[in-house]
């Protein structure tokens, strides 16, 4: 009887382990596929457009993240914040989907695809964000939303920007070394239906630095459990703003 019980229990153990291992391997395969898609959707940014240089990357804390950095370029007047257009127009943004893991990564992919398609229509950033809000609102769970910081420019110093529920854009002035917080206080994208977003303009001088970051950078702690915070980032930027852009990133 004892021998029969041992054989039966061992058989059940093998059956359980085989089933568990199969489910684990399927889950790992799906997560690995999601990670590969994430890497394709959020490549490292390193390019120059006209008088502007861009550098950025996203390093998720897990296999898949909800942070997004992207720069889109085009050569039509749809991309210029001023009338008349520019041959070297660009739109740069950082977005952060609430939550973590595969679900945030899926929403991030939808957001990037919809935004790039909407950019082809032109118009101010305010109307772009309003349309993005209308697209995303019914396509996600009620607890999810997207924060974003966007900047658009072309030839010259005039830039258009908007911040939707995101950390402020940090601007380091080359002339003085001062670090400013630039923002447009408004709610994240996909939180409420029918919200009217706003954008604003700024002048960017030669050598000025604009840093678009997410809370994954500010909400880190040292060995004494002290948070880096937005002021820690501002101190770092003030010290290293003269370095090459890739080093700053």
Mind sketching the topology for me?
Elements lengths: L1 H40 L3 E5 L2 E5 L10 E8 L14 E9 L4 H18 L5 H12 L9 E8 L4 E7 L4 E4 L6 E4 L17 E4 L5 E3 L3 H4 L10 H12 L4 H4 L1
Antiparallel strand pairs: 1-2, 3-4, 4-5, 5-6, 6-9, 7-8, 7-10
Helix pairs in contact: 1-2, 2-3
In short:
With 249 residues, the protein is α+β, with helices and mostly antiparallel strands.
Please characterize this protein's 3D structure.
- Strand 1 and strand 2 form a beta hairpin.
- The protein has six helices and ten strands.
- Helix 1 packs parallel to helix 2 and helix 2 crosses helix 3 (125-136).
- The protein has 249 residues and is an alpha+beta fold.
- The protein has helices at residues 2-41, 102-119, 125-136, 215-218, 229-240, 245-248; strands at residues 45-49, 52-56, 67-74, 89-97, 146-153, 158-164, 169-172, 179-182, 200-203, 209-211.
- The longest helix is centred in the N-terminal third of the chain and has 40 residues, at 2-41.
Fraction in helix: 25-40%
- Which secondary-structure class do the elements indicate? alpha+beta
Shape: elongated
Rounded to the nearest angstrom, the radius of gyration is 23 Å
Number of helices: 6
Q: End-to-end distance, in Å?
A: 68 Å
**Could you describe the largest sheet, including whether it forms a barrel?**
5 strands, antiparallel
How do the helices and strands follow one another from N- to C-terminus? HEEEEHHEEEEEEHHH
Arithmetic mean pLDDT: 87
Runs in which pLDDT lies below 50 for 5 or more consecutive residues are 76-86
């Amino acid at each position: 009887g004892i021998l029969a019980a041992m054989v039966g229990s061992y058989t059940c153990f093998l059956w359980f382990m085989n089933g568990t291992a199969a489910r684990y391997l399927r889950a790992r395969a799906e997560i690995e596929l999601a990670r590969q898609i994430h890497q394709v959707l959020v490549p490292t940014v390193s390019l120059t457009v006209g008088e502007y240089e861009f550098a950025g990357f996203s390093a998720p804390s897990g296999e898949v993240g909800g942070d997004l950095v992207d720069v889109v370029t085009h050569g039509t007047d749809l991309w210029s914040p001023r009338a008349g257009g520019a041959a070297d127009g660009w739109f740069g943004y950082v977005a952060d989907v609430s939550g973590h893991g595969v679900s945030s990564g899926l929403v991030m992919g939808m957001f990037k695809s919809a935004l790039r398609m909407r950019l082809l229509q032109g118009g101010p950033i305010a109307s772009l964000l309003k349309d993005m809000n209308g697209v995303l609102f019914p396509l996600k769970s009620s607890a999810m939303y997207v924060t974003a910081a966007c900047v658009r420019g072309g030839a010259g110093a005039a830039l258009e920007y908007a911040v939707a529920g995101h950390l402020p854009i940090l601007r380091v002035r080359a002339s003085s070394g001062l670090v400013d917080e630039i923002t447009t206080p408004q709610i994240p994208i996909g939180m409420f239906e029918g919200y009217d977003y706003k954008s604003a303009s700024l002048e960017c001088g030669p050598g000025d630095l604009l840093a678009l970051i997410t809370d994954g950078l500010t909400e880190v702690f040292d060995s004494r459990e002290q948070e880096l915070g937005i002021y820690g980032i501002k101190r770092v930027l003030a010290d290293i703003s003269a370095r090459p852009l890739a080093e700053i990133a």
